[in-house]
Design a protein that fits this description.
about 280 residues, alpha/beta, Rossmann fold, six-stranded mixed β-sheet, four-stranded antiparallel β-sheet, 9 helices, 12 strands, globular, binds adenosine-5'-triphosphate
Length: about 280
């Protein structure tokens, strides 16, 4: 499914209060089916706000979002949430029910308002939990799992509604390295095999390099910039938007190409001859 934003902008103004728009320039982009867009920007730049406006959880002050050329305002809420899966940041909420029940809630658009989830809904939930690698936690309470495990459960909750668009707010931020890889590989597979379009907020440049077909970069008092990953994520633009000196590293191993960015400020000030590469193993 195609998702598009035309000239969108937003401000958190109270009644009668005049506040400037959050974004220095109106935001426009088109994301084709099965493509992945990463949104990068410093803390407070407006990434979460942007996701909420894109999905209609918050109304744009100007501009609009469209799915398959239809303005969101013309799509019923029930149809909308069948098509869009939204994964918020996990640490901002506490739940009192089991992981399995949390995931089954994602089936809501398919269950009548007076009906209970059926066997098939629970089967879907278990499939999704299996997909993200935490099916063994199905019966545990959400209060008894780690932040990372809860994050994985929230991703499973969106998968059970068979979404055509996935919107994820920093889904990897609480996960250990292995689970980050699980999530990134899962997203890439969903995009490729099921043509699910994904928009993901991330603070990790190397995740954008691995995942994204296009990048949207925002920062306070800077124009939003959107384009192909390698055009947007240059050392000079990272300096401009994040105010930090980063060096882009590219290396090859077994015919695979790896790209990442490392802050120069984190360099260890010692002689290279003292470095021991894996020599303590
Ligand atoms: N409900 C709100 N009312 C007023 N201002 C808000 C509200 N929510 C967020 N803001 C402000 O809007 C700006 C953008 O916030 P937002 O959460 O979208 O940023 P972000 O880029 O997602 O940040 P982070 O990377 O830290 O998660 C911030 O200055 C924030 O303080």
């Amino acid at each position: 499914m195609k998702i598009e934003v035309r000239e969108g902008n937003f401000c958190y103004a109270k009644k009668k209060e005049v506040k400037p728009f959050i974004y220095e320039s109106n935001i426009s982009f088109t994301l084709e089916p099965g493509k992945i867009m990463a949104i990068l920007g410093p803390n407070g730049a407006g990434k979460t706000t942007l996701l909420k406006c894109i999905t209609g959880l918050q109304d744009w002050r100007v501009g609009e979002s469209l799915i398959d050329d239809v303005p969101l305002a013309k799509v019923s809420q029930k149809e909308l949430w069948k098509k869009i899966g939204y994964v918020p940041q996990a640490h901002k909420m506490v739940f009192g029910f089991s992981i399995e029940d949390l995931v089954v809630m994602g089936r809501a658009p398919y269950i009548g308002s007076l009906s209970k989830p059926r066997k098939e809904d629970y089967e879907k939930a278990h499939e999704a939990l299996n997909e993200v690698g935490i099916v063994h936690l199905a019966k545990k309470s959400c209060n008894e799992v780690s932040g990372g495990e809860l994050q994985l459960a929230l991703i499973a909750r969106t998968l059970v509604s068979n979404p055509e668009i996935l919107i994820l707010d920093e889904p990897e931020s609480h996960l250990d390295v292995q689970k980050q890889v699980v999530i990134l590989e899962t997203l890439k597979r969903l995009a490729k095999e099921h043509k699910i379009s994904c928009i993901i907020n991330t603070h990790y440049p190397n995740h954008a390099f691995y995942l994204a077909d296009q990048v949207l970069m925002i920062a306070k008092e800077k124009k939003a910039v959107i384009g192909a990953v390698h055009e947007v994520m240059t050392e000079s633009r990272m300096k401009e938007y994040f105010n930090i000196d980063l060096r882009k590293l590219i290396f090859e191993e077994e015919d695979l190409l790896f790209e990442t960015m490392v802050p120069l400020a984190l360099a260890a000030k010692r002689d290279i001859s003292e470095c021991r590469f894996n020599s303590f193993e």
